[in-house]
Amino acid sequence: MAKHVFLTGPPGIGKTTLIQKATEALKSSGVPIDGFYTEEVREGGRRIGFDVVTLSGRRGTLSRLGSDSSTARHEYRVGQYIVDLISFEHLVLPVLRNVDLGSDTGKKVHVIDEIGKMELFSQSFIQAVRQTLTASGTAILGTIPIPKGKPLGLVEEIRSRKDIKVFNEYIWPLS
Description:
The protein is of the alpha/beta class and 175 residues long. The chain is 27% helix and 33% strand. The chain contains four helices and nine strands, in the order βαβββββαβαβαβ. The protein has a nine-stranded mixed β-sheet with strand order 5-6-4-3-2-7-8-1-9, with helices on both faces. Helix 2 packs parallel to helix 3. The model has no long low-confidence stretch (mean pLDDT 88).
């Protein structure tokens, strides 16, 4: 039987929206829940990047548009976006490291939206996700990208685990 549930599908299909709706339903049912989701940042109708938002309401930068002529020391890039690894780790790692804390029943749902190229630049994040996957009393509700291009190690690891159910849908029924 699956202990963890992951959603996958193309960008913009509604994975994060479904995660947010499930999170609200679990919270209102009294289920201990923690974690984070990613959210597009738009300016003038144009996407300029992504933020990480914790379920406790903290927000930080995941990535922003960068110029091709940028000469920063060492940039982590995905397409036209520059990943702010320091901001990402500052927000997400404490949430993942508290996986076994804060629940009287010992059972907790952890939201991880998403485990994608930008997030996987962080070796500390990879290690924290692996620890969360094996933590007793913790179930993960997460998202992973559809396979495209070079396989992402942790994503393929997740797909192959027997304790994980991956829902691969192209239209999420949100009503």
